[in-house]
Structures are given as structure tokens and as C-alpha cells.
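Workshop exercise sheet. Pairs work together: one partner reads the sequence aloud, the other fills in the structure field after running the prediction. Swap roles for the next sheet.
Pair: D.N. / O.F.
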Amino acid sequence: MNFNEEINRIGTHCFKWDKMEQLFGVSPTDGLAMWTADSDYPTAPCVIEALRKAADHGVFGYSWEYPEYLAAVQWWMKTRHGWEVETNSILTSQGLGNAIALCIDVWSDPGDPIVIFSPVYHEFAIKIKKTGRRVVECPLARQGDTYVLDLEDAQSRLTGAEKILIWCSPQNPSGRVWTPEELRRVAEFAERNNLILISDEVHHDLVFPGNVFVPMDVAAPAQRNRTVTLTAASKTFNIAGQRTGNIIIPDPDLNAAMRQRLRTLDYGPASLSVAMIAAAYSPQGAEWVDAQIAHLDANRNLFDAGINAIPGVRSLPLQATYLAWVDFSGTGMSFAEIEARIRDQAKIAVSPGPSFGAGGESFVRVNLATSRARVAEAVARLQAAFSDLQ
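Structure field:
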């Protein structure tokens, strides 16, 4: 399990490295791609072996049903997260971006307002706008290094026309792991306002020691009739390019509505992707994930120590994900100057905080799912770029 292996991804149609110059003005030849959320090291050996076995078979024709895949998803959710998932509640989508768009499409109409809590994964707002709906942004409250709920403020922003609440757990970009009590409060908020609750839990496996992730469906069973949970092996095992995710819907009526939409669209998962995920959701995959978390834990400690040594800069302590959330507000600089120094002096492509909505104005998000040496290099570059603050 060599998480420090640096594989050259340039020229492989890699979004993270091959689009960084176009999007951020940082050349991949001398820059570091530390923005979009995928990892730079190989996936688990058991996943690679499953793909090799499928390739050796040599026939890639039509396939029908995937009981091994469904059983693997159930095993993973039970053993890793204490969540009993019924077979019939598991539907598949073409990744979680597609799942979010499907949920918006099935349970709302153009023009409907949809609720999000910001700062949050920028694709929530993008998908809402792309589908012709309206974003209702409810800011999270900041208490020191932690984001907390402010449901009284959120309630004041609602009109009663809202149809859906899209929730992020663990929270992206802050890496916050919500407590069961907080999750219940969110579910009750959704119930009071008659909202379908979409819980995006894609980072649920990447939780650091001392923190415990609880699925929304486990924390708030009383609201199961309105809860839709989105999960995937994509972030955990770095297989986002396989474009396969789970839409887990216990409620029969909600399940039937989504199942009918998938049937209408004639969507079914690709046989290679389900074979890879079934292999990932296994004891061998679990062992690899545990080793990855240890690697990421060391990366975040290295990064935080180096970044927090820069006056006015604070990397919020992560509880989950591999995405550092770095606050530059103490520097007194405008975001344009912060961004320019990171781009032109440090030559690092990072995710700009303002894209995550209210509360992200002075932040950048930095992907630490890479080699230890690359994290150390990023720290050195950022320290040099802001050396005048020393």
C-alpha cells in the first residue's frame, strides 16, 4: 500500500491535472494540482485485481442484475457504519453529481427553491441552477474552528415554497463530522418544512481517529419517510471516473418515484464499475481504507503545522475528508491577492473558497490526497509565497 507513489497523470484526460492551467492559470509542468477531490495514488489492489479478472474474461456484453454488488454495499454499510440497508432500497446512478441532479428533477419543479447550508460543496448550487431551480442559502455559524447549525436563522430564510434540502455529511469543505443530535435536528427541520432531505455522504469513509460518522438514516429514523442518502465508493477508493453511485431510499413511495425515473431514462450501472465496487467493499478494501486514513492523517498534520505557522493563516482541523479548509482572513488581504499569490508564486491550483458560498470568502480548499512529499512541497511553496508576513 504505497500512498506515496507519484503517478504522472498529465496527458491522461485527467480533469485534476489536465484542466488546471485552463481553469486556474497554473501549468501542470511546474505546478501542483490540489483542487478537485480525487486522489493521486493508485486504488486498492483488490479493486485492480477485479478489473484485471474482468479484462482476462474478455467478454463485455450485456449484463443483468448485480446481487454481489448489492450484497457488498449492504455489508460495507453495516460493518463500517452500523447501518442496516435493505436490498430494495439501493438504486444506482451515474455518480453522485448525477444523483443530485436526479433528486432535484424527481422531487421539484423548475423555479422551486432548494435549501443548502453554506459554505458547502459548490456543485449543490451549480446543479440547482442548471436544473432551473433557485438556491436558498442558509449560512452555517462559525464557532472558532468549527461550523455549527443556526436553524433559527435558516428558518427565517424560508418561505414555505421550498421542496428539497440538500445536506452534506461529513461536511465539505470544512471536514466537519456532524453529531447524531445535530443530524436529528436537521431531519426535524426538514420535516417541519415538508422538505425532502437529500443527504450526500460521499466522504463517510474518510473519517479521522477520534471522530465517528453516523449516517442520517441511522441518526434520524423518524424522518426515514423523507430521507434519501447518497453514497459512493468514488472518493474512498479513487474511482470517481467509473461514474457509479448509490441512491439509498427506504421509503417505498420515494423509492418508486426514483426507480421509475431511472427506468424512463433506461439507466443501469456498467458491469466493470459494479465489479470494482463489489471488490472494494470487502475486508481487503477495508484494510486498504484504514491504511489510507493513516496516510491522510499524517498528511493533514504535516500540512496544518506548516500552514498555521504563517501569520494570519489558519487551516481548520479536519475531522473527515482529505480536503483542508484554509482561512486567510487574518492576513487582511483581499481574496484576489490571496488567489494571485497561490497561483503565481506558489503555483498551486486550489479550490477558491467563494465558490462554496457564504462563509467561504477568505478561504481556499486544498486536496491532501497525494504523496507526503507533495504535501511538504505545497507547504514550502505557500510559506514562501506569504513570507513577507513572517
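Discussion prompt: Residues 202 and 231 are 5 Å apart (CA to CA). What would you look at next?
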